[in-house]
Amino acid sequence: MEAKEPETVFTDQAQAIATAISEVLPNSHHRLCLWHIFQNAAKRLSQVFNEFKTFSKDFKKCVYYPETVEEFELEWQALLDDYGLGENTWLEGLYKLREKWAQVYARSHFCAGMTTSQRSESINKFLKKFFKRKLILREFVVQYDKAIADRREKKRLVETATMQTKRNLFCAWNVEYEASKFYTRKIFHYFQDELKKLVDWRLEFENDDGKTRKYKVVKLVTRNLETREIKRSVIYIPSTQSVSCSCRKFEFDGILCAHALKLFRELEFSSLPSKYYLKRWSNDVTYGLDFDIDMEALKSNLDSSSMVQYSELSHIAQRIIVKGTRNDQSYTFVKSELLKLEEKVESRKNSEQRHAGTNDDIKSHNHENDDGENMRLCDPKIQKSVGRGKGRMKNALEAKHSNKKVSSKRKGTC
């Protein structure tokens, strides 16, 4: 990790883990896995879940939906009041840790939309399909290769579907078409969900200080026969075409929110600034990365000295890659130089192949000449004419005598 702490760490609710993270990774944002929280809620509040069928939906709504601290506080208090949980000790303890699990407190930290320790949990579940507890080492290696092959095959299927499946567009805004070409299939669906929300929001101009423009995006919602306004603050900087929203969805998910898209739509942008298309969500983000190396085939085609060269070049390349990912400037420089080097190597390879082909032609020609010097030329074989000859038919005795004469005449041939 090059001594760089992860921006966010997801764990289950354990005080020992929290203490360790605060000491070892003091600059990382510690988040509690929401899957574990929902599991604990089902155990601690089982009676409430059984009595009220709507509690699960309202509880998740309180966790996920609020985009400001004020909205979260209102939703939390409404949840306690509606279900009579104001004195529940478990919820009181959970509320004290709200900054570690409520989504509204995580929006300033990029998490790629993750809210659970799903990455490690899904990997564990995936590996259990291939490994058993008493697996011997030899079988482990075989099963590991199968697991990797299965993983890559599923990845290829997803990439194929992304590249070959036509996206269904629902609006005439060119930004949707542009996004359909850039995003993967799954991410584009998330982006479309934000586009569909544009009709619910109304954009209102507030002020302009010469450098930034401030807008208010408003939506009316009705709950329990009571209608109220939901407001979002959007700031736009014309000089850099930058936008920021109070919901901070882009900072958290890496996808623009409906509020920012509403602004770009009203300003008649036909294309979004490129900085709002994260490369991690693009179709070609894994281009050239997912390649297989058959080590057995490699060993059979390379001698020991070539294998040493392969290993040495791999280590050099790895060092360059690590140094090239330290910052944006290093990444841009290393990527540019590696692409140039790749072109030079490919050009050299093609030149060597052409040169080798010319040498093979010369050798082949010389070989033919060498064979010609030692070749002994003989008379061609005499083939019997097709059909009947012009002379008369001879009897057996005459034919035998005639064959003896022909044989004596051919003694000079080989």
Automatic annotation (TrEMBL):
Signal peptide: none annotated. The keyword DNA-binding does not apply. Residues 402-414 have a biased composition (Basic residues). The keyword DNA-binding does not apply. Keywords: Metal-binding, Nucleus, Zinc, Zinc-finger. InterPro entries: FHY3/FAR1, MULE_transposase_dom, Znf_PMZ, Znf_SWIM. Residues 345-414 are annotated as: Disordered. One of its GO terms (molecular function) is zinc ion binding. One of its GO terms (cellular component) is nucleus. PANTHER family: PROTEIN FAR1-RELATED SEQUENCE, PROTEIN FAR1-RELATED SEQUENCE 10-RELATED. This is Protein FAR1-RELATED SEQUENCE.
